[in-house]
Design a protein that fits this description.
The protein is 35% helix and 21% strand. A seven-stranded mixed β-sheet has the order 3-2-1-4-5-7-6. Helix 1 (17-26) packs across helix 10 and helix 7 runs antiparallel to helix 12. With 286 residues, it is α/β, with parallel strands linked by helices. It has twelve helices and seven strands.
Length: 286
């Protein structure tokens, strides 16, 4: 079992059944165009061996399996998340014509032989392990020419102006914000690739640090109940004392009920920009 002590302090929030349930209920899915990329642009086939690294509750894993990839390993350190991921993927795990697994593991100590995977995907997760040790492990278990595929759903106030005040409750309001958790939006996760570029040895032996980029618009139907679940699944918010969480939920309900599009728990659309960054392991290391 993965040692919880090896995780970022706020990542320990994900070792909780209620947080995992909120993740399943509230977190958005990904655009189908991102999945199509894997085959149509990056050359994977149904028989390619894929890892979904830090797969969480299987949001992206399910889409990979639905695209008829037959060999998928979902790696996740949280036992609570692994249980929910296994439930989400049950029909695929039970399919005798496929090899779909959910296993324990950390990005810095992957339990696989070298040159195993054609592609390693990391959905909404790489900013938690954006370090050279993780890149070394990823490179080790990728086949030569294998793909590292990083994807995030980015929720912007600019794309959702009528919900700006709701989003600012936990982004701009110091009472409910946090500077300790790693966040995709800061871009700090990119620094590891710059460090690799500037190292004469690492730049020749690890995945190509020159990331390629694509972006897709991703409209997601939600409602007040689901958006609150999404918010309560955010690591640092999940660690709030119950009284503080209750106060945030109350403010969110008031804010969303003040907008015609979302009042009375009506379904409404949140617009995400899904950002994809990808690269490959060199065919031949110098």
């Amino acid at each position: 079992m993965t040692e919880i002590l090896n995780l970022h302090s706020n990542a320990k929030a994900y070792h909780d059944k209620e947080v995992s349930s909120n993740y399943v209920k509230g977190r958005p899915s990904y655009p189908i165009e991102a999945i199509k990329m894997l085959k149509e642009e990056l050359g994977l086939t149904n028989d390619s061996i894929i890892m979904d690294l830090a797969c969480g509750t299987g949001k992206f894993s399910k889409m990979i399996c639905e695209a008829d990839f037959k060999n998928v390993v979902c790696v996740e350190p949280s036992p609570e998340f692994r249980i929910d991921c296994s439930n989400v993927l049950k029909e695929f795990i039970d399919d005798k014509n496929k090899d779909i697994k959910v296993v324990d593991g950390l990005a810095t100590s992957l339990p696989f032989e070298e040159n195993t995977f054609d592609c390693i995907c990391a959905a909404q997760s790489f900013h938690w392990y954006d370090n050279v040790d993780a890149i070394k492990e990823i490179t080790r278990v990728l086949k030569p020419g294998g793909i590292l595929f990083l994807i995030w759903n980015n929720l912007s106030e600019d794309d959702n102006p009528i919900f700006k005040s709701t989003m600012e409750l936990f982004r701009a309001n110091k009472q409910f914000s946090d500077d300790n958790s790693p966040k995709f939006r800061t871009g700090k996760w990119k620094q590891v690739f710059e460090d690799i570029k500037n190292d004469q040895v690492l730049s020749k032996t690890l995945v190509d640090p020159n990331l390629q980029f694509k972006k897709f618009k991703n409209d997601q139907l939600t409602n007040t109940e689901k958006l609150i679940a999404t918010t309560l699944s955010i690591s640092f918010i999940a660690l709030f004392p119950q009284e503080k969480k209750d106060k945030l939920v109350s403010l969110m309900k008031h804010s969303l009920n003040s907008v015609e599009e979302s009042k009375d728990n009506k379904e409404f659309t949140m617009v995400y920009q899904t950002e994809v960054y990808f690269t490959r392991k060199p065919i031949k290391s110098d």
